[in-house]
Amino acid sequence: MLNLALGFASCFLVTFVIVRYADVFGSLALDHDLKGVQKNHSAPVPRVGGIAIVCAAGITFAVGALFGVNPRGEPALLLLSAAPVLCGGVIEDLTKSVSPAVRLLCGFASALAGVYFLHAVVGRIDLPLIDQFLVITPIAVALTLLTVAGLTNAMNLIDGFNGLASGVAILVFGSLGYVAHQVDDWLVLSVSLTMIGAILGFLIWNYPAASIFLGDGGAYFVGFMMAELAVLLIARHPNVSAWYAAVVTIYPTFETVFSIYRRRIVRGRPAGDPDGIHLHTLVFKRLVRHGGMLQTTRQHSRRNARTSPYLWILSLIGIVPASLFWHSQVVLSLTALMFVATYVWLYASIVRFKAPRWLVASVSHEVTSRTAEQTRH
Q1: Which of 19, 23, 80, 146 maximizes the CB count within 10 A of its CB?
Q2: Number of domains in the chain
Q3: Keyword annotations for this protein (predicted)?
């Protein structure tokens, strides 16, 4: 548990320093874009929270190696592998000048580094017709680059509201750590605990009110670590179904696939074009904000924070069965189908203004009460 505690404490303190002195760096650290199509905050906030998480991971891995609570070399190699995608994301956070294509290439570079340093290769997906081709190393490596870079970018895609990406990441790392404990994988367990602690230390500053954001660097780093640990579990342990990795991360993965389909097929636009109709955005606009208009920054922050629990619960549809049935391909495949069906139903219901009444978090009472109080005064 030292990894968990030290990750939490070190990230909490580093985040405090960043928040406290963010104004010193002015436009470099603060996100001043309040009107972008995917922006949902109402005041400039530092978006370099990923730096705190990386610092916490580095500190925890170093101290943990000294006390023998995590391996000495492999966590450092994992951090080294993450360097390209982390740098690409942080530079984008600071300069707003790194294109999506360059950041995707950084994701491929990090995935390739993981292949080289840690032998993290997707060698099977437990489908015989496809697995026979994965014995060919270049094909297996190509699939690894695609899946790792894909999940890395998927975490950045869902990073839209206070605590959303962080909460989902904690749940996924909790599952990875649990399965690693079941199969006695020291590396994956210790890194999972470290990431949970570090993200919790950050989350205190990000939810319910946001004093700092993950930023691209943070989302990419968290996504990459998540992807690498999932690949390592599959590569090292034949008794862990390859479908486990797909199902435990199905929320960010399917959100990305569905977004590409929606943009390219439905709307005929480039897949990389940002838009404001992700599921989490629709939840904010049509479920959480239902019943009243935004009046103050405080109300906006409350509604922002109320959005994330919807998606945390949705992600649990995949995470809980994956954690309990990590060795059963049948259960995992049925879980994947159930998640996809639930996601599509929920999305279609919200788009058509036919969401069930029990899903709507009405704020009319809050607005009415505040209006009445202002009238009395």
Answers
A1: 19
A2: 1
A3: Cell membrane, Glycosyltransferase, Magnesium, Membrane, Metal-binding, Transferase, Transmembrane, Transmembrane helix
